[in-house]
Amino acid sequence: MNTLVRDIYNSIHEFVRTFGAFQLFFLRLIRHSPRMIVRRPGLVVKQIYNAGALSLVIIMVCGLFVGGVLGLQGYANLSRFNAEDSVGTVVALALIKELGPVITALLFAGRAGTALSSEIGLMKATDQLAAMEMMAVNPVRRVLVPRFLGGVVAMPFLVAIFTCIGLFGAHLVSIDLLSVDVGAFWQQMQLSVSMDDIHEGVIKSFVFGVVASLLAVWEGYNAIPTAEGVGRATTRTVVISAIAVLILDFMITAVML
Amino acid sequence: MLRRPENWLKALDRSSDNLIEIRDLMYSRGSRVIFKDMNLTIKRGEVTALMGPSGTGKTTLLRLITRQLVPQHGAIFVDGVDISSLNQAGLYELRKRFGMLFQNGALLTDYNVFENVAFPLREHTNLSNRLIRHVVLTKLHAVGLRGAADMWPSELSGGMARRVALARAMVMDPEILVYDEPFVGLDPISMGVIVRLVRRMNDALGITSIVVSHDVAEVSTVADCSYLISDGKVAASGSPDELHAANSELVRQFMHGMADGPVAFHFEAPNYAEQLLGRDAE
């Protein structure tokens, strides 16, 4: 009984400690960010390229097919009520408010997040971060901040691209394949999608960008510096990012309803 | 960037000074005590070797001296300054006076050899690209790898990587060069090259070198003074000749590479016969 209580106490203690450290880590990244943006924009741009441009293929292909499947499902179900003209509305609202930000964030965690974690973890395991410390270069500022900012900047753009390609996919399926009226498709969409819906998507994409990038650099930076440790950190990045994104998605949606 | 004349004078002026002093150092990791009441002095301008069996915490000691780790008790003075009193800015200023060669080189894998050596210059100075090119090529020439400037770290052999790392460690003209196991895993030719470089850098640039190693033969050829560390303390110190002639059993075992002695061949274990008979499980 005594050991059980102690175990529970230790777990809570460990959780609170880690969570506190995580928040301080976030503040450290924020504190160094303005200086890196002003003084070393090249480093940030390179990481935007790494996190953003290199994720484009997976984002575009997935966007196309997610949009396509939404078109199919939307048509199949709406046509039961003779409401297939509304397929544009359904697809647009689903993509802009939910699927765009969420699926992009999950794909981002799998593509860019894991790359960041394993890269930083390996830099740690091969003493590159310690070498920077010894060269009087702060690795948090030099290595982590540009990677964090790269993800934060890239995510809203990726979400926008995912959503646009998704709409294009839905267009292809419902108009070219299922012969929905093209005028109805786009007009219904324009009538029912308001600026608030777009705001919701933008806010989500920004929050998910911060969370997914932050978790990726945190896991990499705190990886146990061995092959196994880096592997585990990479896995944790995907798992924790996915959970965090879905929980936050629920919370933001609830707040913005 | 380059060593300022007044520093030269200061260095000459105080050539007999102790550059690094460790006083009553105590450091433990978890329940394992690594150093206890350790005292050690490193003289300016000399090559000092820190030797000891594997697992005695030689690398840990280096990390303490460069404050990558903080001791639980005791003080470390570098040039008279207690390094535990420094804030981060002060610490980084201090570290600019250090150059460190890591065991595996620790080259930055996303930069080529030239950019690796140029890295500290680009981070800390506003030198023009032309000047940076000059300085980097000079340093690479000194380690014999000017021709490898465009290669990537993954294309280098272990010995070459360590020489590039040495060029990088020297590029800011440090006062103290720290080598972590520079001789491990090198073929005899690369080993000879590194041994000669350690000595030459020290004498030609008037710097202080700290070499952590357990290669007795190599250390004997380069070190002015050696410390043998065992059980968290300095077990013996002196010139390589003095250590070779020492009476202590531990020093003899280490210097002559004997399998058994004060450092036991067998790791702590239960009784052999009883374990084979399975009685230890009962």
Describe the structure.
- The complex is a heterodimer of chains A (257) and B (282).
- By secondary structure, chain A is mainly alpha-helical.
- Chain A is built from nine helices and no strands.
- Chain A has one domain (43-256).
- Chain A is 88% helix and 0% strand.
- In chain A, helix 4 (87-125) runs antiparallel to helix 6 (139-177), helix 4 (87-125) packs parallel to helix 8 and helix 8 runs antiparallel to helix 9 (227-256).
- Chain B has eleven helices and ten strands.
- Chain B has a six-stranded mixed beta sheet, with helices on both faces.
- In chain B, strand 7, helix 7 (188-205) and strand 8 form a beta-alpha-beta unit.
- The interface between A and B is medium-sized, with 15 and 24 residues.
Number of helices of chain A: 9
Spatial order of the strands in the main sheet of chain B?
Answer: 6-7-8-3-9-10
The major beta sheet of chain B can be summarized as:
6 strands, mixed
Number of strands of chain B: 10
CATH fold-level topology of chain B:
Rossmann fold
Shape of chain B: globular
Terminal-residue CA separation of chain B: 68 Å
Order of helices and strands of chain A: HHHHHHHHH
Distance between the termini of chain A: 46 Å
Briefly, what CATH class of chain B? Alpha Beta
**Rg result of chain A:** 21 Å
Q: Provide the β-strand percentage band of chain B.
A: 15-25%
Mean pLDDT of chain B: 84
Counted up, domains of chain A total 1
Strand content of chain A: under 5%
Number of strands of chain A: 0
Q: Order of helices and strands of chain B, N to C?
A: HEEEHEEHEHHHEHEHEEHHH
Helix residue percentage of chain B: 25-40%
| CATH H level, superfamily name of chain B | P-loop containing nucleotide triphosphate hydrolases
* CA radius of gyration of chain B: 21 Å
Quaternary structure: heterodimer
